[in-house]
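Encode chain A's predicted structure.
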Amino acid sequence: MPNGPAAVTRETTTAVDVEVRRTLSVEVSAGAAATVARALDEIRPELERHFGLALTSHESPQYLLYDRDAFFVAHRDRPRRGGDELAARRISVVLFLNHDFSGGALTFYDLIAGPGWEGIGLPCPAAAGLLVAFRSETMHEVQPVTAGQRCTIVSWYC
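Encoded structure for chain A:
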């Protein structure tokens, strides 16, 4: 069940800003949360191998619901400069729980270096059960959902 609008963290302030992120946070049972936390712990060694990083832990997952017209503007989960609580983030993960929605593409920017590729977004097609992991300093966004509901679990490894 939706708990309310999901907040945005900027430097040391966390607040709801519907011009930046129009997403609902969902509360799940303690049992479901524990299951997700165990699964995130279990995949950490594979993420460490893939990205060549030593990861110590993950943040508490967020359970998100994007209704029609919901979005999250282009952003980085880890700032380029340190100094805030997000600076420890190394790897971001998004787990798609469904695919029966339209729009809502997880879109990555600046993945290809070179002239003409600056600002070009590459969308990742959603599939139920798909886990997408990427470096937290990667620019990305969630395009507006045009139909249905986009349901995801997100977390960040430090």
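Helices lie at 30-51.
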